[in-house]
Write a structure and sequence with these properties.
- With 662 residues, the protein is an alpha+beta fold.
- It has 13 helices and 40 strands.
- The strands form 8 sheets. The chain has a 7-stranded antiparallel sheet with strand order 20-21-22-28-27-26-25, sandwiched between helices. A 7-stranded antiparallel sheet has the order 30-34-35-36-39-38-37, with helices on both faces.
- Helix 6 (276-301) runs parallel beside helix 10.
- The termini are far apart.
- The relative contact order is 0.09.
- Residues 1-30 have low confidence and may be disordered.
């Protein structure tokens, strides 16, 4: 018995609250005559999928196949449920069993009889995800197939039999009692049958029969809180409209950006019959359409406070943070938009590379011995490096073995977010779990930042849609050594749109020249000792009215090397609104009046000496709403005159440009 999939993605109903059938019991069926048992087994089939090839997956050790039962490890097919015949080339099963084939790496489901012959599904005639059933035909049905006759609802407390492919061990018959009826969860439009006959994973879609061998229901699931199983009355299949499929239900749509949800009701009808492949395409397209509409409605209904709108956005619009590891912007409990720094776990790679991860985000600092062009063009190498930190394991019986490679990606695409950043989308197959590992990556000078998710193969389109939406809210700094910056800038198709207004010229021995439409900074070795290992940071932030917010460079920092206190920086700030806290007002006042620390006097502490000043944009005057700060830092305790010369040199290396302000 399989668990119902999450309602948000496909079922779109509250039946997702129910879990897969679990408890097993000894086979009985002793009260049924031998001829009835023979009929039941002849009319009941396993639903199976052909196992995919192992592909390019590699592991850190040999797989312990001896921990898997012989039948399971030698069978070319995996067993996913049960189906049974209800008419001439008409079969029925649980909808969630056939749904497993949508987009599956295992391919489409098929039926297998007791002799091991496999029959392909042809046309889908009826479908309801809320009722959880599907009626279909076979392309080449078995000769002389037996059929189960429908029966009326039996008396309460009468004996019933669950027939099905329990635990993938073939069709067995187990007895119990029809105990009660339970209203359908949303509106009580029909009654579920409740029964105590044991049912196990694999029973989904099999018949529930009475003492005369008549099908009274389709076995579906059990509730998590009690040992009672659930079936759909067979009469619901009979009264369902032939030639029609339905998607229905209600679900709350949420996003990890703000504390709000949107209740969405689905009542979608589509024409049948359709070949199985077309049926899958229809269901997938309709589901994606409703998911997208629900997300858009949620954003529209909260548009007045979703970044960059609303008073809660002001703090983030006037903040420039250092974020080499990506951060997800979100609204906190006080309705203020923030980009909190997560606790990051790091794994060291060779040649100064490393992988950091936290909360579904990763950052790869490419090893020095790997050129950016190589990393950009070799997706196998890229994921192999990520897997050093992002652990994927394969369960084998009671053991699990770590995956070292998934080979080349299965699919690749890209999209551009609202800030003009081009994200690469790459999907790797995990064939043994029928899953996709999706990595949505933004190239940076020192490697990549990315989100990483695993999802069942049939849901990857829905995941892509949500990932694309969330990438609009990723906050990140661009940084790298001068050598890395040279590789990055030479690679076509990786730079965000914001770089169209930037000019970055790098000669690692002589000069680094940064030019934007706001300011320029040109630094030579007399200002910062330059080598190919010197580090350039571009800290991006936001500015502009809510309808025209730009993502642009607000701060440039040039450091002698990694982990040093010899660096210079130039940053841009705008006058904060009165609604922001005193810390914003105080810092702005100090910039505006050139008060300490922006007064050109040194400050020595923690093994370094700092000196800074403020600069006005040209032709703006003392009331300018924009200010620039310049800061020079040197290791150790330095004298005022020494640092004063450094600051003068920095001032001559910097030029503020004219800006139009409102």
């Amino acid at each position: 018995m399989r668990a119902r999939r999450p309602a948000v993605f496909l079922t779109l109903g509250t039946v997702a609250l129910l879990t897969a059938l679990g408890s097993a019991a000894p086979a009985s069926g002793a009260e049924l005559s031998g001829s009835l048992q023979q009929l039941l087994r002849a009319a009941t089939f396993e639903v199976v999928q052909l196992k995919p090839a192992e592909g390019e997956v590699t592991y850190d050790r040999e797989l312990p196949w001896d921990l898997i039962p012989y039948q399971e490890r030698t069978d070319k097919y995996r067993s996913i449920g049960t189906a049974f015949a209800i008419g001439l080339n008409r079969y029925v099963t649980a909808a969630h069993v056939i749904d497993l084939g949508m987009g599956s790496l295992y391919g489409p489901p098929a039926l297998r009889d007791s002799a091991g012959k496999v029959y392909d599904i042809d046309q889908v005639f009826k479908y309801s995800d809320t009722h959880d059933f599907l009626e279909f035909s076979l392309r080449d049905p078995p000769k002389g197939a037996r059929v189960l006759s429908p029966g009326s609802k039996p008396p309460l407390n009468s004996t019933v039999y669950a027939v099905g492919n329990a635990l993938g061990q073939g069709v067995i018959i187990r007895d119990g009692v029809y105990t009660s009826d339970t209203p359908e969860e949303l509106d009580g439009r029909w009654q579920w049958l409740r029964f105590s006959a044991a049912a196990s994973p694999g029973n989904s879609g099999g018949p529930l029969v009475d003492e005369h061998g008549k099908a009274v229901g389709i076995v579906l699931r059990k509730s998590p809180a009690e040992n009672l199983n659930v079936a759909l009355p067979i009469g619901e299949v009979g009264i369902a409209k032939d030639g029609e499929g339905t998607l229905g239900g209600r679900f709350p749509m949420r996003l990890p950006l703000f504390d709000a949800s949107e209740k969405t009701t689905i009542d979608e009808h589509f024409e049948l019959p359709k070949p199985l492949a077309q049926f899958y395409t229809t269901v997938s397209d309709l589901t994606l359409r409703h998911l997208s509409a629900a997300q858009q409605t949620l954003l529209e209904h909260n548009a007045d406070h979703v970044f960059p709108r609303g008073e809660g956005s002001a703090r983030l619009l006037h903040t420039t943070d250092r974020a080499p590891f990506p951060r997800l912007m979100h609204e906190d409990a006080n309705k203020v938009w923030v980009e909190g720094a997560p606790k990051v776990d790091s794994v060291q790679l060779e040649s100064n590379g490393f992988v950091e991860q936290a909360g579904g985000f990763v950052r790869l600092r490419v090893p020095d011995n790997v050129a950016f062009a190589t990393l950009f063009g070799d997706d196998k190498l890229y994921l192999d490096l990520l897997l050093k930190a992002y652990v994927v394991r394969r369960a084998i019986g009671t053991d699990s073995v770590r995956v070292t490679s998934l080979g080349k990606s299965k699919d690749a695409s890209h999209f551009v977010d609202r800030w003009g950043r081009t994200w690469q989308v790459r999907d790797w197959a995990i064939p043994y779990d029928d899953q996709i590992l999706t990595v949505v990556s933004l190239p940076t000078p020192d490697g990549y930042v990315a989100t990483v998710n695993r999802v069942r193969s049939g849901y990857v389109r829905f995941l892509h849609k949500t990932q694309q939406l969330l990438c609009d809210y990723v906050y990140v700094t661009m940084l790298g050594t001068l050598a890395q910056w040279q590789d990055y800038l030479a690679q076509p198709g990786v730079r965000p749109k914001a770089f169209e207004t930037l000019s970055i010229k790098i000669d690692p021995q002589r000069e680094v020249a940064f030019h934007s439409d706001r300011f320029e900074l040109t630094a030579g070795p007399e200002l910062v000792k330059l080598t190919k290992d010197s580090v350039l940071f571009l800290d991006f932030g936001f500015s502009g009215a809510p309808d025209a917010v730009k993502w642009s460079v607000n701060r440039v920092m040039l450091s002698e090397r990694v982990h040093t206190n010899n660096w210079v920086t130039a940053f841009r700030e705008t006058e904060p609104p009165a609604s922001l806290p005193d810390s914003f007002q105080s810092n702005w006042k100090k910039l505006k009046t050139r008060s300490f620390p922006f007064n050109g006097l040194i400050e020595s502490k923690d093994g370094e000496t700092r000196i800074s000043t403020a600069v006005e944009p040209p032709d703006q005057g003392p009331d300018a709403r924009i200010r620039y700060g310049l800061l020079a830092v040197r290791e150790g305790v330095q004298k005022q005159d020494t640092m004063g010369r450094e600051l003068e040199l920095l001032k001559h290396s910097f030029r503020a440009l004219r800006e139009e302000t409102k």
